[in-house]
Specification:
Its cofactor is Fe(2+). The protein has ten helices and 14 strands. By secondary structure, the chain is an alpha+beta fold. A hairpin with a 5-residue loop joins strand 8 and strand 9. Bound molecules: 2-oxoglutaric acid and fe (ii) ion.
Length: 324
């Protein structure tokens, strides 16, 4: 039976507890990921101040004049860093949809520093380890983003150990596949809507995410996140600023040979006339394995539903498909 609400999982017992407690939490994660591919986590240990500070900077930045924001826009459309204006991409196109550009702006960034070894600095590495592009205002934006990124890195490391336990694998199964991960973050800004959207246009069209886990910090405003149930209905997802919504991405679905679902979700438009209260910000950490990790179904020989795919190639392909 499909959940009527998104399951809530308290991570605290697993983060401080015994293997038995980790197993119990892992089973809860397994049930949620099998059924709907979404869960809300609490007891995650991330200090609220880290979240508030980044949200505050994001709000200041996105409320600057467009011309100033555009100074943080990369010249090339292919560079996944910096500011992107309204309608730059259409997430539905990554899943064979054809909606017009999404009604959101975003700020795209990755880690600040990396070692000077070939994995990072080679031609292949430079496709994924790209310098961030911070605007002049607000001051402290880069530092707040780096602190939040580091907290998410810890959290996803812990979650992937629990994921391995849930899947009956060694607890460290994913460790050497994520120890040089290429995770990018997007700070999404959905402005209040003065004009009616075009037909089929949304804040974010129906799509699945690409990586392992997405850790989302949102806010409940008119025009929010919805996920599709197995019955085909759209279920509203609460996204309070003091919890995180976690969802499975395509690569983890492939890795688990469809045991876990990378589920279709979207961000709907606010009702007409909602006014400024409909402005919404979300912070999305798209946890993605090392670019050279080969994602192969965990399945008995002959039963794999997908051919192996390289982590970095898969993400690049999806970025290309979603660009309008
Ligand atoms: O803003 C949200 O609530 C979800 C955004 C999302 O699904 C995405 O950026 O992939
Ligand atoms: Fe998404």
């Amino acid at each position: 039976m499909s959940a009527a609400t998104i399951p809530i999982v308290d991570l605290a017992p697993a983060l401080r507890g015994s293997r038995a407690e980790r197993m119990r939490v892992a089973h809860e994660i397994d049930a949620a990921c099998t059924d709907i591919g979404f869960l809300t986590i609490r007891g995650h240990g991330v200090p609220p101040a880290l979240i508030d500070t980044l949200r505050g900077h994001a709000s200041t930045f996105f409320n600057l004049p467009l011309e100033e924001k555009r100074q943080a826009e990369p010249e090339k459309v292919t560079v996944p860093r910096g500011y992107r204006a309204l309608g730059f991409d259409s997430l539905s196109r990554g899943n064979a949809g054809n909606a017009p550009g999404d009604l959101k702006e975003y700020y795209h960034f990755g880690r600040e520093n990396w070692p000077s070894t070939p994995y990072y600095t080679s031609e292949a590495g430079q496709r994924f380890f790209i310098p961030n592009r911070w605007p002049q205002r607000p001051v402290g934006f880069a530092e707040a983003a780096a602190a939040y990124y580091a907290a998410m890195e810890r959290l996803t490391g812990q979650m992937m150990s629990l994921a391995a336990l849930a899947l009956g694998l060694d607890e460290d199964f994913f460790e050497d596949k994520i120890d040089r991960h290429i995770t990018a973050m997007r700070l999404n800004f959905y402005p209040a809507q003065q004009e009616a959207p075009q037909s089929g246009q949304m804040r974010a069209g129906p799509h699945t995410d690409y990586g392992l886990l997405t850790i989302l910090n949102g806010e409940n405003r008119p025009g929010g996140l919805e996920v599709q149930t197995r019955g085909g209905d759209w279920l509203g997802v609460e996204t309070d600023p003091d919890t995180f919504v976690v969802n499975i991405g395509d690569l983890l679905m492939r890795w688990t040979n469809d045991r876990w679902v990378s589920n279709v979700h979207r961000v709907v438009n606010p009702p007409a006339g909602s006014g400024p209260a409909a402005q919404r910000i979300s912070l999305a950490f798209f946890h993605h394995p090392n670019y050279d990790a080969l994602v192969e179904c965990i399945a008995p020989p002959g039963e794999a539903k997908y051919p192996p795919v390289l982590s970095g190639e898969y993400r690049d392909q999806q970025y290309r498909r979603t660009r309008v």
